[in-house]
Specification:
Shape: globular
CATH topology: Nucleotidyltransferase, domain 5
Number of strands: 4
Order of helices and strands: EEEHEHH
Number of helices: 3
CATH architecture: 2-Layer Sandwich
Distance between the termini: 28 Å
Strand order of the largest sheet: 3-2-1-4
Radius of gyration: 14 Å
Helix content: 25-40%
C-alpha cells in the first residue's frame, strides 16, 4: 500500500471506462508475482485494451520501480509510440508507480 501523503500522478483519466476504439489508445498495467521452485518471480505486464495483447513485459527478482517502468519502456519501444500519440497508460497507482523516482520521471516528461 502506498504512503497516503506521497505525491501522486494526475487523477484517473479512464474513469473505469476500459474501452478503446483503436490500438495504442489505452494501455493498462499492473505488476504481480508468481512462486517458482527457486523463489518468487515478479512480473509486470502492459496490455493494450483494444487488442487485448500484451505489448510490454518485464520479469525480475524484485518489485522495485524499475520493474513496471521497464515493462512500459519495452511497450513504448515495441509499439514505436511517439510522445504526442494521445496514449493513456493506466495503472492502479501502487507504490511502484508512486515512488519518488517515478514521480520525478513523470514531472520531467511533462515539462
Amino acid at each position: 500500500m502506498p504512503e497516503p501523503s506521497a505525491p501522486r500522478p494526475p487523477g484517473n483519466l479512464v474513469d473505469r471506462d476500459f474501452t478503446a476504439s483503436r490500438p495504442d489508445q489505452l494501455w493498462v498495467a499492473d505488476p504481480t508475482y508468481v512462486r517458482t521452485w527457486s523463489g518468487w518471480a515478479y512480473v509486470a505486464f502492459v496490455l493494450d485494451v483494444y487488442s487485448r495483447m500484451i505489448v510490454g513485459w518485464q520479469v525480475a527478482n524484485h518489485m522495485r520501480t524499475e520493474l513496471p517502468l521497464d515493462a512500459l519502456e519495452t511497450a513504448l519501444w515495441r509499439q514505436r509510440i511517439k510522445k504526442d500519440s494521445g496514449l493513456i497508460h493506466h495503472s492502479d497507482r501502487g507504490s511502484q508507480y508512486v515512488s519518488i523516482w517515478q514521480s520525478q520521471e513523470q514531472t520531467a516528461q511533462s515539462a
